[in-house]
UniProtKB/TrEMBL annotation:
Protein name: Chromosome partitioning protein
Species annotation: Frondihabitans australicus
InterPro entries: AAA_dom, DNA_Partitioning_ATPase, P-loop_NTPase
Family: Belongs to the ParA family.
Function text: May play a role in septum formation.
AAA domain ranges (all copies): 42-216
Pfam families linked to this entry: AAA_31
Composition-biased stretches (Polar residues): 1-14
Residues covered by region (Disordered): 1-37
Length: 295
């Protein structure tokens, strides 16, 4: 009986190496050309009713990466916890915030916009006052469209507006979906995070039917991926099976550099510009631009 060769087939090994974490062939997304003019903005809501899946981390680092490619970006903190504001070093007290704009206390959004240490990236901050907005908006006429009216006033000044949503499907999130052209769903590669995606997609469909017929699903972004664990790989495989091409090729791996950058109030591409995590968010920016989901 002849010996069975244990040497891996070279072509098979090469084919496996050419596949990304999502199981699809790796794509090289080109560096986008500089823009000759700016605006009107494409508004993207970063949504997931589960907390801790990377919405704020993605809002900060996607915004900084788009700015690095010459886009003018406005990040809107739409979470009462104010993590986006803190992560970009924005002031949140004794200054106009998104809450003041929602309730009409401040009429001009430009009064609430703060520049950040990233050239081309601005922010509208939030603080705990925003938690009272849902109660305040209950009796407002067309309450689901208030954020859209606010952002319409500054849309011409930016190429992309990113809305960092709170982890819920309440009136604030519905406002963000009504204002948006597209939705980006960060999804932690963990089983319990997977369970809520279908409910979120159903909510997006309802908003499309009733409030915003133009809204699109820009993509599902796998975050906190750990290629060393079978669990991460299985969850990502199930997401791709369920949502197909809606799953972005870019995958954000778990790393301690993200919390370190947050403590420094700095995006990863400034805190650790050569780290693979910084390149992952640059790739995400290029992928969204290639898909037409960003300017």
């Amino acid at each position: 009986m002849g010996r069975v060769s244990t040497t891996p087939n070279t072509s098979t090994a090469q084919a496996a190496a050419d596949l990304g974490p999502t199981g699809r062939p790796r794509t090289t997304f080109p560096v986008p050309p500089k823009l000759s003019s700016h605006g009107p903005a494409r508004i993207i809501s970063l949504c997931n009713q589960k907390g801790g899946v990377g919405k704020t981390t993605t809002s900060i680092n996607l915004g900084a990466s788009l700015a690095e490619y010459g886009r003018r970006v406005l990040a809107v903190d739409f979470d009462p916890q104010g993590a986006l504001s803190a992560g970009l070093g924005a002031r949140t007290h004794d200054v106009p915030t998104i809450y003041d704009l929602l309730i009409g206390e401040v009429k001009d959004p430009r009064q609430a916009i703060q520049s950040t240490r990233v050239e081309g990236l601005d922010v509208i901050p939030a603080n705990i006052d925003l938690s009272a907005a849902e109660v305040h908006l209950v009796n407002e006429v067309a309450r689901e469209q208030i954020l859209a009216r606010v952002l319409r006033k500054v849309s011409a000044d930016y190429d992309v507006i990113l809305i960092d949503c709170q982890p819920s499907l309440g009136i604030l999130t519905v406002n963000a979906l009504t204002a948006a052209h597209g939705v980006l769903i960060p999804l932690e590669c963990e089983f319990f995070a997977l369970r809520g995606v279908a409910l979120l997609v159903e909510t997006i469909d309802k908003v499309r039917d009733r409030l915003n017929e133009d809204i699109e699903l820009d993509g599902i972004l796998a975050t906190m991926y750990d290629s060393r664990t079978l669990h991460s790989r299985e969850v990502l495989e199930r997401v791709v099976d369920a949502f197909g091409d809606s799953v972005l090729e870019t995958v954000i791996s778990r790393t301690v550099k993200f919390p370190d950058a947050s403590v420094a109030a700095s995006p990863i591409n400034q805190f650790a510009p050569t780290h693979p995590a910084a390149e992952a968010y640059r790739q995400l920016a290029r992928e969204l631009i290639s898909r037409g989901a960003a300017a």
